Every structure is written in C-alpha cells, then in structure tokens.
Amino acid sequence: MNTTRSEGLFAAARRVIPGGVNSPARAYGSVGGTPRFIERGAGASFWDVDGNRYLDYVLSWGPLAVGHAHPAVVKAISQTASRGTSYGAPTATETELAELVVATFPAVDLVRLVNSGTEATMTAVRLARAFTGRTLILKFAGCYHGHADMFLVQAGSAVATLGLPDSPGVPAATTADTLVAPFNDLDNVASLFNDHADEIAAVIVEPVAGNMGVVPPRAGFLDGLQELCRSHGALFILDEVITGFRASPGGAQARWALEPDITCLGKVIGGGLPVGAYGGRRDVMETVAPVGAMYQAGTLSGNPLATSAGLATLHTLQEPGAFDRAESLAGRLASGLQTAAESAVLRLQTAHIGTILGFYFINDDAPPDATIHDYDTAREYADTDRYARFFHALLERGVYFAPSQFEAAFLSTVHTEADIDTTIEAAAAVMQTLRD
Ligand SMILES: *Cc1c(COP(=O)(O)O)cnc(C)c1O
Fold first, then answer.
1. Is the shortest distance between the CB of 116 and ligand 1 below 6 Å?
2. CATH number of the domain that 167 lies in?
3. CATH number, domain at 401?
4. What is the maximum alpha-carbon separation in the chain?
5. What is the pLDDT of residue 158?
6. Which of 131, 279, 316, 321 is the most exposed place for a label (fewest CB within 10 A)?
7. Quick check: CB of 308 below 6 Å from ligand 1?
8. In a domain, 436, yes or no
C-alpha cells in the first residue's frame, strides 16, 4: 500500500503541530506507523491522500452515525451555510435540537448546547457542585470524560484512593477532589460513600465504558450507582457522549431504565460537527445562568451549522428500521470476529451494545477464565502487540479500526451486511497469521 503522501503530510504537520495531530489518539502512538491523512469520505468508507480506500469503523470516533457525507447532512449544512454560519443570537434550530433531545431522553427536562463532550462533562460537574453545595466527585478508572483537569485521574489501585493527576499541568489540588473507583465495582463505591458521607456532589460514569476498549456494565451496576447517589444526596451524571443514540435509540438510560439527574451528550448529536450538550432535571438545570447563578457560556454554542448537521443526522438515524439495522450489523461483526478467532485459536473477548462494538485480544498467558471487566483487567489481559499487528494487517486490506486496542468500533446506518462479511473474511485471514 502506497502511503507516500500521508508520510509527507505527516512530516509537514509535525513541524507545526505537536505530534502532527490535533488530538493524540490520531497519531497511531500505540500501534506505530504513519497516520493516514484523509482526503474524503462517502458512506461507510473514506479515502486517504494516496487514493487508498478504507471501510471505516471509527467514524470520527463515533459521531458519524449515518456515515460520511450523508446527503441529508450535506444538504442541511450547505443550505445553512449559505445563510451564515453564526449570529451569536438565538435560532430556531437550537430549539429544534433541544426538543429532540428532550423527547428522546425522559430524564432531560431542559438542555444546554455546548461545543464538545468535554464542555458538557466539565459543566455537568460544576452544575452538580453548584446544586449540591458539595465538592467531591466520583469517577471510574478507565472512564474518559474529556480533558478537563478534574477528570485526568485514572486508576489508583484496586482500592479506590483520592486521585493523583495523570497529566503534568493538572494541579494535585484539582484532582484531590476526584475519587476513583474500579468500573463495575459497586461495593467500592458504597464504601467511598461511607467514607465521604455528605461530601460527594456527583458520580459520573460512562454507562458502557468505551475508552478502555468496550466494557459493558454488569447487571445491577448502573442501577446500584443511581440508588447510592439517591440515598446519599449526590447527583447521578450519565456521560452518554458515546452511548447517546448508540447504546439504544434512547441511549443507555432507555436501555437500562435509568433516570440520571444530568445527562451529557456529544459526538452523534453533532453529526460530525462540534457539539455537546448537558441536560437533566428541571430544578437542577434551573441552576444554570441566566435562570440561576452557575455560569457557563459559549460564543459558538448552538451554532446553526452544528445544530443543523446534528438534526439531519438524528432524523436520518430515527427513520424506521435504521437503528435496528446498524445494531444487527454490530452483532453480526462481533460473532464473525469471535468465530474467526476461535478457528485461529486466539482468545478474543467481544462486546456489542447497540451500534457500539469492542473486541480485546486476550494475552496467551492470561488465566483460562480471564475476562476484562474494568481498567485493571483491561491493562493486564489485553494483548496490545497482537492488536497492533491486527490493526496494520487490516489497514493493508482496506479496513479501518481504531489505532488502539483501548478504543471502540462503531457501526452506522450505511454499513451493509456485505461490508461486515468482507471485514470478517479479512479479519479471519489476518488472525491465522497472529498465532505467533
Ligand atoms: C469523547 C468523549 C468525551 C469528550 O468529548 P469531546 O467532544 O472529545 O470533548 C467525553 N465523554 C466520553 C464518554 C467520550 O467518549
């Protein structure tokens, strides 16, 4: 595969952009090699600058629920752009998108649009602190909530501890107010609530962990969290930036009958343009300025390009049968990969929830019953070297999975059964070569 032009562009980019990328995961750091520079996308595929075509399971890390350059989305964006891109004054489209969110998520009475998932989650925490008058927040190791300071804490040990920052530049004082528990470990959360009675403002969780690979919640975990929050006067923040419009048409909260106090959205609701949102209970949301005193603002928040792209995407996704088809493709791919791994005598752990898919290669020397259910087990049992070889071999065959074992794969309404079967065939051939 010729990648000459990507190599040239990457070299040029590195001269003026740190690492040549505007978001670290794009740099292929964990799999090695040259990131492909993309020229255009259509449907379920994109083409790099050397003319190579890839069937895309990254979909811009989730947002493109209806694929690349969907005609309805392109039309909405171009029609909007011809009338101007931003006014700094309200538009009807913002209300339309907010109405759609409120109609989709019964736990959301009021919603505020922002520009990214990071803005949504960081503001959700500020809001929870403002509403409860408390300071501590509790997150889970391996869950990602954007790059705001207070979230840049991952694992302590198996025993949750007060957080230490993962990144230089994050003051220890900031993360000292972030408690960290292992994902799927309700007892640990209960004991943190006992140790910090009346101090925890909120628990924030990815209902399906999608940033350490894909780890589904154990039965009762999410319910249990909600219950613990209720009984201790803390707010329950569901970070549905990935799972919103993906775990089910109504997100994880519809799938598992949850009633979060605050819901964070992003990715799909912008249809490939920068959007995020946080919303929830009326009394909580009325703490937000200008109704209440908690300040949050944004020059380009709710801008017409992003909101019209989001609306066109969601309307397309909500056409009868569309979501179900994409969901069934995720199942087809997961079971195809599983079968391929078995016939290559490789251990593979797959998960699919709605249109989200994950798969881990399990280390050969992991115990026979090893399963990945949290961050520690993901670090311990996932075979990142084998994943890197798998990734590159599939890339060569024109299939684009995420350049890291610890990311999710996504399906769209424009992937087809034939796409899935081609992918399984390619994966099966590659897996036969991964034994040693
Ligand atoms: C991507 C992501 C975010 C951050 O969203 P950005 O738009 O990248 O700022 C927050 N939470 C989760 C669960 C995410 O996957």
1. yes
2. 3.40.640.10
3. 3.90.1150.10
4. 62
5. 33
6. 321
7. no
8. no
**Cβ of 266 below 6 Å from ligand 1:** yes
* pLDDT score recorded for residue 161: 47
Per-residue model confidence (pLDDT) at position 249: 98
In a shared domain, residues 258 and 394: no
pLDDT of residue 39: 98
pLDDT value for 121: 98
- Provide the residue range defining the domain that includes 84: 71-317
Last residue of a domain, one of 284, 317, 350: 317
Q: Using the atom order of ligand 1, give the atom closest to the CA of residue 118.
A: 9
Other Cβ atoms less than 10 A from the Cβ of 45: the count is: 18
Are residues 77 and 63 part of one domain? no
Query: 432 and 344 in contact (C-beta within 8 Å)?
Result: yes
271 CA distance to ligand 1 centroid (A)? 14
Residue 79: what pLDDT?
A: 98
* Residue 284 · residue 235 · CB < 8 Å: yes
Residue to mutate, 118, 269, 278, ligand 1, most ligand atoms under 8 Å from C-beta = 118
Amino acid at 88: G
Best residue among 144, 149, 301, 406 to mutate for probing ligand 1, ranked by most atoms within 8 Å of CB:
144
Q: Please report, for the chain, how many H helices and E strands are present, in that order.
A: 14, 14
- Best residue among 145, 265, 273, 356 to mutate for probing ligand 1's pocket (most ligand atoms within 8 Å of CB) is 145
State which of 317, 344, 365 marks the end of a domain: 317
Helices 304-317/92-104 angle, 10° precision: 40
Do 85 and 14 fall within a single domain? no
Question: Do residues 228 and 140 both lie within one domain?
Answer: yes
Residue 248 CB–ligand 1 contact under 6 Å: no
Low-confidence ranges of the chain (pLDDT < 70): 154-164
Task: Please tell me the predicted confidence (pLDDT) of residue 162.
Answer: 54
Residues 224-235 have pLDDT tens digits of 999 999 999 999
Q: For residue 134, tell me if it sits in a domain.
A: yes
- Is 156:163 a contact under the CB 8 Å cutoff? yes
- Residues belonging to the active site: 144, 239, 267
Q: How far apart are CA 394 and CA 85, in angstroms?
A: 39
Per the structure, the count of domains in the chain is: 2
From the CA of 210, how far away is ligand 1's center (Å)?
Answer: 10
Cα dihedral: 417, 265, 112, 172 (round 10): -160
* DSSP secondary structure letter of residue 395: H
Euclidean distance between CA atoms 102 and 108, whole angstroms? 5
| Ligand 1 lined by 278 (C-beta under 6 Å) | no
